Amino acid sequence: MNFLKIEAGAKAAGTGGAFSAVADDASAVWWNPAGLAQQRIKQASFMHLSWFEDINYQFASYVHPLERYGTLGVGVSYLSVGGIDSYDNNGALLGSKVAASDIAAIFSYSRNIKKVEAGASLKYLSENLADESASSIALDAGAIYRVRTGYASGIVGRQLRIALGVQNVGQGVKYLEKEDPLPQNLRLGFAQDFFGESATLSLDFNQPNDDKYYVCTGIDYRITDWVSLRGGYRYKSERPDDDVQPGFTCGMGVGNDYISVDYAFVPYGDLGLTHRIGASYRFGRTQARSVAEAKIQKHLKYARKYYNNKDYINSYREFENVLTLDPVNLEAKDYIETIKKDINEIKVDKYIALAKKHQEEDRLLEAKRLLDDVLKFFPNDPEAQKHLSRVQAAIVDQKNARADSLFEQGMEFYNQGAYSDALTLFEKTLVINPAHAKAHEYINLSSTELSKINEAKRQETLEQNRAKAAGLLKKGNSLAKSGKYDKAKSTLEEARSLDRDNAEIADTLKQVNSEIADQHYKKGLQLYSSGDLKEAVSQLEEAVKLDPDNEKISENLIKIRGQFEESEKVKAENLNREGLKEYDSGNLKKAVELWEKAATLDPENTKIKNNLNRAKEELQKKK
Predict the structure, then answer these.
(1) CA neighbours within 13 Å on the CB side: how many for 271?
(2) Do 225 and 82 lie in a common domain?
(3) Is the sign of the CA dihedral 577, 580, 581, 587 positive or negative?
(4) pLDDT tens-digit map of 386-437
(5) CATH of the domain at 339
(6) Is 24 part of a structural domain of the chain?
(7) 307 and 270 belong to one structural domain
(8) Residue 217 forms beta bridges with which residues?
């Protein structure tokens, strides 16, 4: 069962396997089931590992919070090897292949017990090699305790997480005769956040039952809300020359509040390089609440920081963001009232200087926003009003300059005859400056030129189609004269699709259709004379489609169709009588078969329908 040593989860592997005190994603079912207790949202995760020698390893897990009753988790890991050469007891190659596979199904539960997050996992383990197999049951258990460091902000985070866990406690596994113990591991872990929770440093001490102890350490640094970089190192107390345990590892994660993708690069010396890639998806109404709460906490964090630094303007702005997300947030309301009382401590000159700096750097919208905030508190401040007017005028000038630049680019396209590109730029000019008179004028001019071009193209296409139709008409006439009416018909139909208004094409096609209709008519009469009423009707129907105004064809179709329908009714009645005989003799299946044929021939005959339905019901009862 050594496949249980393969680490699950790309995020954890990227930090060197120091994850027992972090355990903040769905892979916690493998690392430390106690980590599930901190998860408040549904999450599914998947991982693929390219292992050595074409060995594949897959891991999938799912976390389901139970609100006040803890958290459930399930996971499955699967290792597969195919195409292993097989030999006999003398070492001779047999020429056949055998396969091997390992699977672990994990069922986890975790919850908070006072100040400790505790969890346990039950594992069903199975290995298969060729025709032999072995299985076992194992237990994992873990706990995470959070120690307050006393730091509310700054470099060191608020909590130190301490984890203790044990993995794969259970009865050994027997293949044939020999029994081997499970690969148990005792783990002590630590995790601490730094730099406002932007970085997490973790450390794990591991004591396996079949090797010396080893230490894992890692860091997860979140550059932005979307991107994380990771690194780690695994140190062994005694590392022989042939040891292939990984030293340095690295990885990264990309994603948002709902979906994320993680990658880990883990080298194993001479055995080669391994790559893990995983994806996690968080969902459900709880997730939406969690995302909103995370945004609120982020705004509160910055608002408090600004307030402590007496930057009341930015603090006020962040608290307003909180109230946008949570209109009844008492903390934000209290702080806003406090800021309004303490607002006289604001040094307006500082903010005006900052606004001037923004303006010098062409960050006009930021300058305007800052001055708007200042004037919320000091609406009569003359310096702020004066500078806001300057910023607003600069914004107008900037927009007009941008509009003029776009218009000039549009004029270059217009003068080159690229009216479509010119029209796009003139329209963008009006988006920026709706009062741009020249843009209005040249939009009309460009539209007029484009209409002329499109009309010219339409006329050109029309003339080309007419010329092609004339050639097809000539070809169709030639085919008709030589008696090749079917080819003439398809040729003339193509000509008509190109030139609908050509009366000569329409007349010629009508004549050809009449000739083909006459052929169908004559063939229909021959079939009628030979007694094949069904085919006669089919031929006459085709003739009527081609020449609907021919009364002679229509009259004969009505007459022959009537005779055909009458003959079908006679056949149906004969089949009905045969069905009755079979029914009376108890052969229901044959009776149903005959009545189904009769119903096809005479669908309106209610007597046949009733007989058929009755027989089907009796046949169904017998079944």
Answers:
(1) 16
(2) yes
(3) positive
(4) 988 998 998 888 889 999 999 999 999 999 999 999 999 999 999 989 999 9
(5) 1.25.40
(6) yes
(7) no
(8) 203, 233
Beta-ladder partners of 72:
64, 109
* Residue written as token pair 């890991």: 77
Q: Identify the band that residue 467 occupies on the pLDDT scale cut at 50, 70 and 90.
A: very high
**% of the chain with per-residue pLDDT over 90:** 51
In the chain, the number of structural domains is: 3
**Among 238, 214, 172, 253, residue whose Cα is nearest residue 10:** 253
What's the start-to-end Cα distance of the chain, in Å? 54
End residue of a domain, out of 363, 378, 401: 401
Distance CA 141, CA 117 (A): 11
The answer to whether residue 181 sits within a structural domain is yes
DSSP 483: T
- pLDDT tens across 282-310, in order? 876 555 556 677 788 888 888 888 888 77
User: 544-557, pLDDT tens digit by residue?
Assistant: 999 999 999 999 99
Which residues share a beta bridge with 144? Answer: 117, 163
Beta bridge partners of 107: 74, 122
Give the separation between CA 563 and CA 262, rounded to whole angstroms: 78
On whether both 166 and 311 belong to a single domain, the answer is no
Could you tell me how many residues make up the chain? 623
Q: Taking CA 341 as the corner, what is the angle to CA 335 and CA 345, rounded to the nearest 5 degrees?
A: 105
**Are residue 91 and residue 213 in the same domain, yes or no?**
yes
Tokens of 410: 């549009």
Owning domain of residue 232: 14-283
Rounded CA-CA distance 72/110 in Å is 7
Residue 447 is which amino acid?
Answer: S
Answer with the one of 385, 401, 417 that is the final residue of a domain.
401
Report how far residue 281's alpha carbon sits from residue 258's, in angstroms, rounded to the nearest whole number. 6
Type of residue found at 85:
D
Closest to 151 measured CA to CA, from 217, 114, 195:
195
Q: Does any domain span residue 317?
A: yes
Per DSSP, 69 falls in state G
